[in-house]
Amino acid sequence: KQHLREVLLHYFILKKSAAETHRLLVDIYGEHAPPKTSCKEWFRRFNSGDFDVRDKEREGVPKKFEDAELQALLEEDSCLSLDRLTKELNVDRSTVGKHAMEMVQKEGNWVPYKLKERDMERRLVICEMLRQ
To answer: For the Mos1 transposase HTH domain, which residue ranges apply (predicted)?
Structure first.
């Protein structure tokens, strides 16, 4: 994250526009490039004389929750949508998404992205049964 901000600052110093910089970053980093709006925001900051690319402290205390809270909700009802989880936990949608990254929603249910050992064994048994 900070590396990309340093790259933005580099192109700002080279007198490139935010839009041109964004195009260059998309060519280089593809889907990992920062959004155009972020590029514009950083260029506004640089224009105002703020060249610090580190994260700034934000006002207010962000709501924190434990993965256990999310896990408990999903165990109770694995069909909950991301929006519903956001409301239940009273946190930002992206926060829930980051915590649920090891989970994926398949056929309306949240399941682990990485299979547990027993699930892999179960798949193997089923595959062997189907081959017969």
So the answer is: 1-50
